[in-house]
Design goal:
Ferritin, mainly alpha, 6 helices, about 80% helix, binds fe (ii) ion, about 180 residues
């Protein structure tokens, strides 16, 4: 295999962090749904989406090892914040939990599209995977809106906070 360019290295590092973060968010949501919040339908939806995120995460985990890329040093912090965000958003109920998914996926949609546009034929397989993952994320976003994600009133503020936080985490994870 050819040497991974530093740009692609950054892509894989940040995508690994993001997909792992997604798993952690859903873990936090399921923690709330297994304790304080009762909603079997929401729980089932989240469990299904979590399976996809674990697949995504495993792919990047493998790429990190294969190409000898250092994962972001911030993983422990992202784990903590991810679980906290998932747990907290779900305490608000269905609207909060699903807004969390919608907000994150909207950021990831643009993030992945930006990467896809920069990847050429030398990274064909990676490009194919990211394209597929982006489709999964868009599907998650649609599910979130179907299941009651709201951006009205207070939730519009929460949306902005989640989006800003996600973008900061992306910028950091690319570099460190
Ligand atoms: Fe994902
Ligand atoms: Fe997703």
């Amino acid at each position: 295999m050819k040497k991974t360019s530093s740009k692609v290295e950054e892509f894989i590092r940040v995508d690994h962090a993001g997909e792992r973060g997604a798993v952690k968010i859903y873990e936090g949501q399921l923690l709330a749904l297994n304790t304080l919040v009762k909603n079997e339908d929401l729980k089932k939806t989240i469990e299904e989406m979590k399976v996809h995120e674990m697949e995504h995460c495993q792919f990047f985990e493998k790429e990190i090892k294969k190409r000898n890329i250092k994962p972001t040093k911030f993983l422990p912090l992202w784990d903590l914040l991810g679980v906290g965000l998932g747990f907290g958003s779900t305490l608000l109920g269905k609207k909060g939990a699903m807004l969390c998914t919608a907000s994150v996926e909207e950021v990831i949609d643009k993030h992945y599209l930006n990467q896809i546009n920069q990847l050429g034929s030398e990274e064909k397989e990676l490009k194919k995977k990211i394209t597929k993952f982006r489709e999964d994320e868009l599907h998650h976003k649609d599910i979130a809106y179907e299941k009651g994600a709201s951006k009205k009133g207070f939730y519009s503020i929460l949306d902005k906070i989640i989006k800003t936080g996600s973008k900061i985490a992306i910028n950091i994870s690319e570099k460190v």
